[in-house]
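Sequence in, structure out. Go.
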Amino acid sequence: MFSGGLDSTVLLAHLIERMERPIAALHFSGLSCASETLAARSVAQRMAVETWIIDLSSLWSACRKAPERTPRSGERALFGATTISYAALAIANARGVDSLAMGWHREDAECFPEQSAEALTHIRGTMALTGSRVSLKVPFFDWRKADIVQEGYRLGIDLASTLSCVRPVGGTHCGVCEACLSRRSAFRGAGVSDPTEYDAS
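Output:
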């Protein structure tokens, strides 16, 4: 699963280093903004992996509790992460993929119940009930986001090219949304320079 953000980009490079089998980056468009999909496509191309882009915009619109106030407003949908995970598993199963990797980490689990260890247990239990043989891998689950940043530096990834922001300004991180604050905190925690360009307005 590949958003083009920091976590999923480091995950992709982490898997490329460790696996000899072909890897495809699965990106769901329409969940955030067009800039996210552009970033995902660009990063995946540089890493030379096949990219599958699936549009979920109509589903996401139906999940919104109220119309967006502005084109830049970002929000999380209840069961959003769960819905996306099941969608990815359905695609993997249909296409004969034997494993699906996600970039969830410890801070996700602490902040969002649907990305907790209990939620993973339920997802895997449902897969077993359906007879799915897709293996769900979450290699960063015990890591902090700062650990992921450090892994990105070790792998030599251009982290500035990743996009985490839920309401970017012309493709630039806004610097103040929840995702940007988490990103900034991760670079500080990793003790490395943050190469991200944030909007100054």
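Check: The chain is about 45% helix and 10% strand. The mean pLDDT is 89.
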